Every structure is written in C-alpha cells, then in structure tokens.
C-alpha cells in the first residue's frame, strides 16, 4: 500500500447534482439520479483527487463508502472510472467489488481479502461499501415537495428552523403516501417524487433487527446514526489495514454530520456549514493520536465557497 503516512486522508464529497436538486425539491431518501451536470461534477472531482494525490504523494483511495441512494453510487462510479481504479472491462468501465453494510462483523470479514491482497491485483481494485447510515437526512413529509412551496407554507422562520437548526425536524413521513407501494398505480397528489419501497430497497437491512429506519430526521438524528459507522467501520478499517486514504461520497447532511463529529463543531456553528455538490473536501486525521482532526480543505476552494452559498439560499431563489 505504499509508504506509510502519519495521517489518514478522507476525501469526502457530496454527490453531484441530482435531477431533484435541479428542480429545487427536498430529495431525502428519494432515489434521484445524477443530471449531466452532476456527472460532469463527479468527473471533475475525480480529476481533482487524482491531481492532488500525484502532487502530494498521497495514495489514491484504498476503500470507498457511499450511501444506499443512487446519486452517491453513480458519483462514486464516475470518480473511480476517472481514477482508473478497478478491473477494466471490455467496455472500458472499471469494476470494483460492492458490499451493502447491514452487519459490521460481516462487512469487515468480507472486505479483508480485498484489502490484504491488493498487491496481488494486476490493476488496483478497492471494495466499495454502501450503507443507509450515509443516506441523506430523511426529510419526512417534506420529501418530494418543492422548496419554495414549503417555504411559503411554513414561513421563513419555521422553514429555516427545520431546515438548518441542529434539532429541527420536519413532520413525520406517511409511508403509505410518500413511498412507492408494491402495486403503485401512480403518484399521490402532492407527491410526484416518492421514496422507494423499503422492504425491497432495504431488504438486507431488514435482516438486522437492530436497524430502525427513520421517518423524519433532524441533523442530530443523522449524527447519531453516523457515529457508530464512523467508529466501527470507517476508522476501524483504516486502523486495522493501515490505510492512508479513503473516499466517502455522501449527502449534504451526512457530510455535515461527519464534519461535526470529526472536527467537533458545536450545535450552533454547524447551522452555518453548507456543503456544495461534487467538490472534494480533504480531512486529515492524526493516526498516532486516535485519528484526531488536523485540518480540512477543499480541492477547489473558490468554487466551493460560491456553490455553498447557493445551497444556503435554496428555496429563496429560482431553480439552479
């Protein structure tokens, strides 16, 4: 795995623009796809990561993590192809082993062979782990609703409290209306975009009786579901296999949650943290000091600043 470093580099980013981002809709657990712009953002992210690794001598990501939602999976796929990581197929696509995380012990046992045998592969191949714990915050009854419509209905103060306050939580979802049913006859009025059928989408998670999937979340709720995955998988795997870098593709709220945990951001200050689509953020952690936070930086800081401001103003402006 190359020369050992004293720091673990986490390449973290929010997925590229999705078709519901483009429509200014609360997406949450709805399985939106990337737009062409989103794919271009993912390609650019891969180029930035590759350039950074070549310039600094940091190894390319040695393991990948995504949510269970399609837009992060597509973003990861585009980035790994840009990095030329995986076994190259006849169509030029780079393929890597995929694991859905529903049990931590199972996960560590399954990925071990890939991490320990990396040097034996003729081309670099990394395991990609997918977990519901990296999913976007569940926006409850706001899912599938246009942000300007919700703003008008709730008013600016309540809209911003639910959307930005650490403990703000939207009304609970009615899964009979806002989830695709087994024999769905079409959209329910007001819910043109709906969450996938959970028994089908999250069938593996259903094997673990300790997992209770949410029906509405605050950022505090997201942090609480993220912490065990960060400790028991991301950092545990990095420690056990002496990794130098990994790639995490999440969502606005799951990335904010990771930052809050790793950097120790206060409940008040996290309200002012906005995550732009598709721009890699590097977080450096001290391996010798229990992965203590050292520093963070965007690989395109100017564009990150501009796009983060656009995120903050969603609902107050026309569709991007």
TrEMBL record:
Task: Specify the species.
Answer: Nakaseomyces bracarensis
**What keywords does the record list, in alphabetical order?**
Glycolysis, Isomerase
The record lists the catalysed reaction(s) as: (2R)-2-phosphoglycerate = (2R)-3-phosphoglycerate
Query: Carries keyword Nuclease?
Result: no
Top EC group:
isomerase
Q: Which family does it belong to?
A: Belongs to the phosphoglycerate mutase family. BPG-dependent PGAM subfamily.
Which Enzyme Commission number(s) are listed?
5.4.2.11
Q: What protein is this chain from?
A: Phosphoglycerate mutase
Record CDD domains: HP_PGM_like
- Give the metabolic or biological pathway: Carbohydrate degradation; glycolysis; pyruvate from D-glyceraldehyde 3-phosphate: step 3/5
